Structures are given as structure tokens and as C-alpha cells.
Structure to design on (479 residues):
């Protein structure tokens, strides 16, 4: 309250001086008492264009792949199948429920000290709305890679929250959803082989099965979406100069709906069967990406070191054995326009925070979210409010504005890493200018993990370095 009225006094004072001094005018526009930047943004620059703007070529060592939003104008998929933003958020909650359900299960079935310190809640199946139960990752980013010899090009979800890579395969003995590209045909690849049950790779799977001495994989995402089939091995081509021979992946012949039009999924998690682990000798456990600022531009995914921006800042990569697939980092505090919110650091550390490429909206412990929301609303009080939806409760109608002044939200991590989020990383446009929402949400359950979602990662170059246990962020990553 005190700082609020003080800043009022300051603005009145600055306004008086405005008449006399150009210097004071620039101070008024670019700084407040704490000296943090104000974000005055042309709203047009935050909204996707109807056409895909073609990306500049980016150089770097290692494989560099173009990364595309599945539902934007750069997507190779049939645009009549695009999801609305409301549908994307419904799917997003389904993914978050799955992530947390996974943890609750682990919490119950393990007896590690970590697990017993977490609030023990039963698997909250009743809390998971039925209509969100059968989808996974459909709000995600996609890349195009090739399997087999000769190469069969396939567009897949890229996912830091899963380990097993899989694609739908012919003859598709049980069930395949309709994908846009032709199904992978193992019989057309001279380098394909299935994996025997005695192969050590088979025992790396979480729940391998054996059929006719062939290893069978199954991955279940949430309660309804799943894939299973023969665990297989073939050449994976990431880019013309980057080939991995003998790459293990699932050849899915029993796949549910819920994956959109993609051919499958590329797993970049921390498990032994993820691409990162399998390519460890080639890429040293390092990969990075930049998610584009809007769905009408493209980003990149790259493997191996090199090409990291000079301004990269690191924070510790943390591990939670109850969620071994995920990359954790140490979120410690949040500031709005340079003023730190009064949230006890234990609010974050009690549940931990993951960074996930596939969750759209960041999730915070309820107490932290409420504090952020209140500070944000106070700064945005000049703008007319708009209705939210089930997930996003702080929205504004910006249709009569050309520019908007958005407070900076800063996420502060261990080792002094501070991510200053700008408007494109804070706002989620539910319905164009008329529903511009704070792109964060509070967790329903006190034991739910915090998640840094992909809206908040846009435009940063995010570098994962597994052997050195750090995650780095650089500015201007997609340029
Ligand atoms: C905002 O951007 C749009 C599109 O680039 C442009 O037409 C408009 O003049 C800009 N408005 C302001 C106030 O800069
Ligand atoms: C980027 O790659 C292109 C084509 O391979 C090459 O001509 C160019 O010199 C490279 N640029 C830099 C800055 O390395
Ligand atoms: C796109 O999907 C619509 C509806 O599912 C279908 O009618 C149309 O033929 C498809 N177009 C292409 C190019 O596949
Ligand atoms: C297992 O092998 C037998 C004999 O070759 C064959 O008839 C059967 O279809 C195979 N089963 C599966 C699930 O592939
Ligand atoms: C396909 O997978 C589902 C889910 O794992 C399973 O219930 C079903 O029995 C499978 N179908 C066949 C024919 O194996």
C-alpha cells in the first residue's frame, strides 16, 4: 500500500517536470522507483499473423531442427483440424493432471524419505475431469525427422516430459489414429530390426512385455491415451548431417486418439531410453531449443553443444526420484516490476518445479499464484477486465488499445538466474485482443508440482546440459 501511493506521488512529480525536461520524460517512460523496465508493447506484435513468417537460417554445430507450433500457420498439418485456444487449455490441464497423477502414484508406492515428506493424497482420479482424460500434448511443438533406410520423413511431438520415442507403424495390427503423413513401414527399411526380450534395452522400459521373444513397449499417458507395439531399432536421421544408427523406439500398433495429426513423439526426458541418453556419446547429453514468440514464426531444436548464446545464464538442474523423467530447477521467488512478492521460498521448494516443453501455461503453488495474480491485477487496473476460463482467471479486453503497458514478471532461480518475462511470455491470448490473460495458473492440489510451461519459455534459448547438471537461458534465442 505504502509503495503504491509513493509511486503515485512519483508519477505526479514526474508529470509536472515533463513540461520542462526531456530527460525527466525519458525517466518516466523507462523507469520507476525500483529502476525496472516498463513494457510498453504494440499489441499487434504479440498476436500470431495469418501467414507463417519464414525463419532466418541459424547456424550452429550439431543437428538443428526447425520447431513449429502444431496449431499455427507454420504447421504442415491440415488447418481445418486446428484446436481452439480453449481446447488447447483443456488438453493442457489433462497433461498437468497426468504429470501429477504420476507423482502421486510414485509417492504412494515408494518409501524414500522424499516421498514421505510430501502430503500424501490418494490418486485423485475423481478430480480428473472426464473430458480431459483422453488427450496428451496436443498443444505442443513439433519437428520433422526421419526413420529408417531409405529415410521415411515423419513429423512428431518434441517432448521433454517423456522418455520413450514412438511412431505409429504398419501393419498397425490393432489400432492407429489418423495421422497426416503415411505410416512408417518397417518392411521398407533395410536397417530396421525388432528388439528381443533379452536385449538390455528392453529391460530399460518401465513395463516391458514379451511376445514371441520380441520386446513389447507400452506407454500410457493419463487414463485413456496410450501407445504400444514392438520395441524396435533403426536409423534415426535428425538432419542430413546427423544420423544415429541403432536408435531404440516404439513401433506403435495399438495407439489411442489424443495425439493430433502427428506420427508420434520424440522423448527428450531424463530416462535411459530417451534420445538424450541414447545419443550421449554423440551429443554429450546437451540439447537446446527456442520456442517462437507466436505460432506464426518458427524456433529450433538442436542437439550437442555449440551455438549457445554468449549471454547464457545457468541454474542447477535438480532431480526428484519420484519423477525421474523430468528436469527440475530451483524456482525461489517471483517479482513484479522489480518488487519481490512475499512468498516463503518453502512454498516452491516443498513441491519442486519442473521445466516442461509440453505444458502451455505455467503452474504455481496456489499461494504463489494468488500473490502474483494480485500484484499483476493491481498493475493492470487501468485496463477493462474480460471473462476468463476454467484455467485462466485474470483476463483483459484490450480491443480498444494499440499498445499496452504490461508489468515485468521476473522468475528468480537458484544460482542467481533471473528470467525477466516480457508481454509475449506473460500474456496468453484466449481470443485475440478481447481476452488477453495472465498466462499462469494455480495448482489445484497442494502436492502438485510447479511447472514452467512453454508460454513462459518463448524466445529464450534454453540449454539443457545433463552431465554438468545445469539448465541455461539466453536472450534473443530464436533470432
Ligand atoms: C502497431 O503495429 C501495427 C502493425 O505493425 C501498426 O500498423 C501500428 O501502427 C502500430 N501501432 C503503434 C502505436 O505503434
Ligand atoms: C552459416 O552457414 C552458411 C551455410 O552453411 C555459411 O555460408 C555461413 O557463412 C554461416 N554463417 C556463420 C556466421 O557461420
Ligand atoms: C482437411 O480436413 C478436412 C476435414 O477433416 C477434410 O475434409 C479435407 O479434405 C482435409 N484436407 C486435406 C488437404 O487433407
Ligand atoms: C508369434 O509367432 C507365431 C508363430 O510364428 C505366429 O503365428 C503368431 O502370429 C506370432 N504372434 C505375434 C503376436 O506376433
Ligand atoms: C490396446 O491397448 C489398450 C491399452 O493398453 C489395451 O487395453 C488393449 O487390450 C490393447 N488391445 C490389444 C488388441 O492388444
Amino acid at each position: 500500500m505504502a509503495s503504491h501511493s509513493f509511486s503515485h506521488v512519483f508519477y505526479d512529480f514526474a508529470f509536472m517536470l515533463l513540461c520542462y525536461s526531456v530527460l525527466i520524460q525519458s525517466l518516466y517512460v523507462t523507469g520507476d522507483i525500483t529502476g525496472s523496465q516498463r513494457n510498453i508493447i504494440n499489441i499487434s506484435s504479440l498476436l500470431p499473423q495469418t501467414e507463417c513468417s519464414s525463419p532466418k537460417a541459424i547456424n550452429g554445430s550439431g543437428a538443428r531442427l526447425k520447431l513449429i507450433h502444431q496449431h499455427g500457420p507454420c504447421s504442415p498439418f491440415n488447418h481445418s483440424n486446428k484446436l481452439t485456444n480453449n481446447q488447447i487449455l483443456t488438453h493442457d490441464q489433462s497433461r498437468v493432471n497426468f504429470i501429477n497423477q504420476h507423482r502421486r502414484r510414485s509417492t504412494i508406492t515408494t518409501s524414500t524419505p522424499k516421498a514421505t515428506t510430501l502430503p500424501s493424497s490418494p490418486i485423485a482420479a475423481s478430480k480428473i475431469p472426464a473430458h480431459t482424460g483422453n488427450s496428451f500434448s496436443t498443444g505442443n511443438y513439433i519437428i520433422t525427422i526421419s526413420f529408417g533406410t531409405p529415410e521415411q520423413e515423419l513429423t512428431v511431438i518434441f517432448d521433454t516430459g517423456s522418455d520413450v520415442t514412438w511412431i505409429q507403424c504398419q501393419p498397425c495390427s490393432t489400432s492407429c489414429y489418423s495421422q497426416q503423413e503415411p505410416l512408417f513401414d518397417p518392411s521398407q527399411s533395410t536397417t530396421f530390426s525388432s528388439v528381443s526380450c533379452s536385449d538390455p534395452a528392453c529391460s530399460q522400459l518401465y513395463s516391458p512385455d514379451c511376445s514371441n521373444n520380441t520386446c513389447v513397449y507400452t506407454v500410457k499417458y493419463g487414463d485413456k491415451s496410450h501407445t504400444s507395439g514392438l520395441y524396435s531399432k533403426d536409423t534415426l536421421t535428425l538432419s542430413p548431417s546427423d544420423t544415429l544408427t541403432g536408435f531404440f523406439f516404439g513401433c506403435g500398433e495399438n495407439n489411442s486418439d489424443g495425439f493430433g495429426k502427428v506420427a508420434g513423439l520424440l522423448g527428450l526426458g531424463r530416462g535411459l531410453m530417451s534420445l538424450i541418453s541414447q545419443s550421449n556419446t554423440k551429443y554429450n547429453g546437451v540439447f537446446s531449443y527456442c520456442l517462437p514468440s507466436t505460432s506464426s514464426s518458427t524456433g529450433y531444436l538442436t542437439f550437442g553443444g555449440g551455438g549457445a548464446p554468449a549471454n547464457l545464464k545457468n541454474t542447477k538442474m535438480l532431480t526428484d526420484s519420484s519423477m525421474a523423467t523430468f528436469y527440475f530447477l530451483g524456482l525461489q521467488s517471483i517479482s513484479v516490476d522489480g518488487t519481490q512478492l512475499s512468498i516463503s521460498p518453502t512454498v516452491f521448494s516443498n513441491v519442486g518445479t519442473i521445466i516442461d516443453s509440453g505444458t502451455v501455461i505455467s503452474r504455481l503453488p496456489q499461494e504463489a499464484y494468488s500473490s502474483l495474480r494480485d500484484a499483476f491485477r493491481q498493475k493492470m487496473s487501468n485496463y477493462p477486465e474480460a471473462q476468463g476460463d476454467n484455467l485462466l482467471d485474470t483476463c483483459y479486453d484490450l480491443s480498444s488499445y494499440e499498445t499496452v503497458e504490461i508489468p515485468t514478471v521476473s522468475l528468480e532461480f537458484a544460482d542467481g538466474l533471473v528470467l525477466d518475462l516480457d508481454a509475449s511470455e506473460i500474456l496468453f491470448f484466449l481470443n485475440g485482443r478481447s481476452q488477453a490473460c495472465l498466462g499462469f495458473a494455480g495448482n489445484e492440489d497442494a502436492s502438485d508440482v510447479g511447472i514452467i510451461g512453454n508460454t513462459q519459455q518463448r524466445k529464450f534459448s534454453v540449454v539443457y546440459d545433463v552431465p554438468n547438471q545445469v539448465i541455461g537461458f539466453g536472450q534473443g534465442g530464436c533470432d
User: Anything to note?
Assistant: The radius of gyration is 23 Å. The chain has two domains: 59-303, 313-474. The domain at 59-303 is CATH 2.40.70.10 (Cathepsin D, subunit A; domain 1).
